[in-house]
Every structure is written in structure tokens, then in C-alpha cells.
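Lab notebook, bench 4. Still working through the backlog of constructs that have no structural model yet. Next entry is a single chain of 89 residues. Request: give me the C-alpha cells for it.
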Amino acid sequence: MSRLIAWLLILIGLAIAGVGLALVLSEINAMYAHVLDDAMATPTVDEQDRSRRILLRVGLAALGLPPLLLGTVLSHRARIRRRHARRRA
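Model written out:
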């Protein structure tokens, strides 16, 4: 049961972090696509607004780290318990 919970936490953490990182990369891609299309044009989006959005999306990605780390720790503990139970038996 603890292995199932650990894997669910790992998957949830990876999903949240993955979505956050994908959003950050899409924002960076949009920024560079605009520069490559017309380097001399003024940006349509304010740079400070863009940096705020990137930081918010990085924060979203960081929200996935605690469940990921907790799931990893629980998984390792379950593995260690299983090894000790085999040795006792």
C-alpha cells in the first residue's frame, strides 16, 4: 500500500513539475519566436509582465517538487523495509 501511495505522489509531482516547465518553455519560445520574426519591432508584451509570468510558472513547477520528493522517500523506505523483511524470513 505504501508503494502505491509513493508512486502516486511521484507521478503527481512529476505531472505538476512537467506542466510548469512546459509552460515556462512555451513562454520562452514565444519570446524568442517574436525576436526571430522581427528583431527591430517593439515587443507586443511588456518584458516585466513576461518575466512575472515566467516566474509564476516556475513557481508552479516548484510546487511539484514536494510530492515528488516525498514519494521518492516513501518508495525508498518501502524498498528498505521489504529487504529487511526478506532477511528476517
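Notes after review: Helices lie at 2-37, 47-63, 65-88. DSSP finds three helices and no strands in the chain. Flag for follow-up if needed.
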